[in-house]
């Protein structure tokens, strides 16, 4: 069995769904002829043709709006934002139209918006953000963030089959750095189920996206120092696997939450609040959050490295939480 | 319906010369009149319910713009999709949505199309091929383009029809949606109702251009202008656009010249509108104009007007009775209905 990359798994997942269901189509800027800015849809135009692989004008609101209309009419659009940052142009369509249609008057809106996000790529203020927290607070939207090759495929397939608008945050740094072997089967990652990425006893690290990997590295290094870290990969932010969060907190009694998004108003605050509300009696130490500092994402490597949390920041937070 | 020679059954024997009318079936013409009257009666009832303190919130009148909605929607097949905005009550009425559903929504009833979750005519109904608007103007344009895209992809010859105002046409979604529809040659028709006022803002504060239809050229699509208070002209101009869209010739932008005859919503007394403007347009009331024309052609007389008025009144009464008798929402289980 040969190894496949994270972006390759994403591509394979979309391709399988395009083959399986003719109501599925891909829409976005430069996704056809060019195969997508990151080549996520490479080869699709040749295989499926236009209009199923639809290059559009540069119009984020029209792309997302058209997805809403097509989805209400029974299609299953998969839109690509060239960068997650650019979803601002389609914000109204997501938060006011897509999110509210079902609740307001009933129809399902089965659509996926793919959002290439994340830093470590020196992309600067407009090509690197992690804007998931703008959407996690919008009832009606689902939000997923695969951290592994397996989930890159399993979650895109689940998202396409879901009858709701799903925001799929794919991490650019992981695109070609992660490789794995995947079984030759119809791989579906259920939306709303977290994954125990690493078992441990002393402290829990709750993370998603790239932080699962930085966290895994921190955990491996801390193991040498005799600290056993459990890593929970959320996979899905909305719906949130509260049960898995409370289970790991009950087990280790200490928790660090990590995300690459900036700290204030980041999704970590919501996780911390849930733990405080529902798992307070399990805690032997204050809940810690590790996140990017509250600035725009800077461009120069020295600045971005200082901005983003890294393995050392995680190790320190985990160690301090254990020693509290 | 539509442009078929009237049957030689002698029914319209008093008919005088009106070349445009002569091309249409009498039932079709009276249907346009009746649906405008139904729209007006429903509009009046909604206003009355507001004044009686029975509505949950405000109301937005379509008064004076009935032709823009009824005439254009008359050009559609039942399986075509409408995306009405707040002043397109006539489109909802014409496309076959029962009046009680509109009233149930205004009255916030549990059995209404939004179960009390949204108000006024802010609802959709898949059963009636109606997409519901959101308050952010212009958003329906890309969404209707998406519906049209679904039709195009599946090889269905269905069309999506939606509306915007002179104010809403300055929102980015108008540009993105029309451009997108133009590039993809989508089967969509957009009617821009130039009703002269966006809340309190006159058109000279909305655009420096001489009109709105000139934008069509910028998107490489067909543009047309029409007297928005002439229901038959509205039908004809939309029919042509719909036929073209159905034939794969792409979208059309139609600018309809009309006038908003009430304030933005009922709380707004519209004092900023010059009185003589209302007076001028009152003479151009679409129902009045069409009834004069039908009378001149011998297709309408006092008896028929009285009969239609009575029937429409009865229909609105019945719908009001039905809607008012519906249960109110109980606030339970809402959290379970956010996701499909």
CA radius of gyration of chain A: 19 Å
Distance between the termini of chain B: 39 Å
Let me know the number of strands of chain B.
7
The CATH architecture category of the largest domain in chain A equals 3-Layer(aba) Sandwich
Structural class of chain B: alpha/beta
Report the average pLDDT across residues of chain A: 97
Tell me the number of helical segments of chain B per DSSP (H or I, 4 or more residues long): 12
> What is the CATH topology classification name of the largest domain in chain A?
Rossmann fold
Largest interface, counted by CB within 8 Å of the partner chain's CB:
A-B, 43 and 42 residues
Q: What spatial order of strands do you see in the largest sheet of chain B?
A: 1-2-3-7-6
Find the CATH superfamily of the largest domain in chain A.
Thiamin diphosphate (ThDP)-binding fold, Pyr/PP domains
Q: Sheet bearing the most strands of chain B, described? A: 5 strands, parallel
Total number of beta strands of chain A? 14
Percent of residues in helices of chain B comes to: 40-55%
Large-scale geometry of chain A: globular
Largest sheet of chain A: 7 strands, mixed
Tally the structural domains of chain A.
Answer: 2
Strand content of chain B: 5-15%
Radius of gyration of chain B: 20 Å
């Amino acid at each position: 069995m040969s190894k496949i990359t994270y972006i390759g798994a994403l591509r394979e997942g979309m391709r399988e769904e395009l083959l399986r269901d003719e109501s599925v189509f891909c829409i976005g800027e430069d996704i056809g002829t060019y195969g997508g800015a990151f080549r996520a849809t490479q080869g699709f135009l040749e295989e499926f043709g236009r209009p199923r692989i639809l290059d559009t004008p540069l119009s984020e609101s029209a792309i997302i709006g058209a997805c809403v209309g097509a989805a209400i009419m029974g299609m299953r659009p998969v839109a690509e934002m060239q960068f997650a940052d650019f979803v601002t142009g389609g914000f109204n369509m997501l938060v006011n139209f897509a999110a509210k249609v079902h609740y307001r008057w009933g129809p399902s809106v089965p659509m996926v918006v793919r959002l290439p996000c994340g830093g470590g790529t020196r992309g600067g203020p407009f090509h690197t953000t992690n804007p998931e927290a703008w959407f996690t607070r919008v009832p009606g939207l689902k939000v997923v963030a695969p951290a592994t090759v397996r989930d890159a495929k399993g979650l895109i397939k689940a998202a396409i089959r879901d009858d709701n608008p799903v925001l799929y945050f794919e991490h650019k740094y992981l695109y070609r750095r992660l490789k794995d072997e995947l079984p030759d089967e119809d791989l579906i990652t259920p939306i709303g189920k977290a994954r125990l990425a690493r078992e441990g006893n002393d402290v829990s690290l709750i993370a998603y996206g790239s932080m699962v990997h930085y966290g895994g590295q921190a955990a491996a290094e801390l193991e040498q120092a005799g600290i056993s870290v459990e890593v929970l990969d959320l996979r899905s932010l909305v719906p949130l696997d509260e049960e898995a969060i409370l289970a790991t907190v009950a087990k280790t009694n200490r928790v660090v939450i990590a995300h690459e998004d900036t700290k204030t108003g980041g999704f970590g605050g919501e996780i911390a609040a849930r733990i405080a509300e529902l798992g307070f009696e399990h805690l032997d130490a204050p809940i810690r959050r590790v996140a990017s500092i509250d600035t725009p994402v800077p461009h120069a490597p020295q600045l971005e490295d200082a901005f983003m949390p890294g393995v050392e920041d995680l190790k320190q937070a985990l160690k301090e939480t254990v020693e509290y | 319906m539509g442009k078929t020679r009237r049957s030689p059954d002698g029914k319209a024997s008093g008919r005088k010369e009106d070349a445009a009318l002569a091309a249409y079936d009498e039932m079709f013409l009276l249907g346009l009149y009746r649906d405008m009257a139904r729209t007006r009666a429903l509009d009046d009832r909604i206003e009355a319910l507001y004044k009686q303190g029975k509505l949950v919130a405000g109301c937005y009148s379509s008064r004076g713009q009935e032709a823009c909605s009824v005439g254009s929607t008359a050009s559609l097949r039942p399986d075509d999709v409408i995306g009405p905005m707040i002043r397109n009550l006539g489109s909802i009425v014409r496309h076959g949505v029962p009046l009680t559903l509109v009233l149930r929504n205004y009255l916030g009833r549990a059995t209404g199309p939004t179960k009390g979750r949204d108000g006024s005519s802010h609802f959709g109904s898949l059963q009636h091929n109606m997409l519901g608007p959101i308050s952010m103007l212009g958003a329906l344009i890309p969404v209707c383009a998406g519906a049209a895209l679904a039709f195009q992809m599946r090889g269905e010859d269905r069309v999506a029809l939606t509306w915007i105002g002179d104010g809403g046409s300055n929102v980015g979604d108008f540009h993105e949606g029309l451009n997108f529809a133009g590039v993809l040659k989508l089967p969509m028709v957009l009617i821009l109702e130039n009703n002269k006022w966006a809340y309190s803002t006159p058109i000279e504060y909305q655009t420096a251009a001489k009109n709105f239809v000139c934008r069509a050229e910028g998107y490489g699509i067909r543009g047309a202008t029409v007297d928005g208070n002439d229901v038959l002209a509205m039908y004809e101009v939309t029919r042509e656009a719909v036929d073209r869209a159905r034939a794969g010739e792409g979208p059309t932008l139609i600018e309809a010249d009309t006038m908003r005859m009430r304030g933005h919503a009922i709380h707004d007394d519209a004092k900023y509108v010059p009185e003589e403007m209302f007076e001028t347009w009152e003479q151009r009331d679409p129902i009045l104009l069409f009834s004069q024309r039908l009378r001149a052609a011998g297709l309408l007389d006092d008896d028929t007007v009285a009969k239609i008025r009575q029937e429409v009144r009865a229909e609105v009464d019945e719908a009001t009775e039905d809607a008012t008798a519906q249960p109110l929402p109980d606030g339970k289980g809402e959290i379970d209905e956010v996701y499909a």
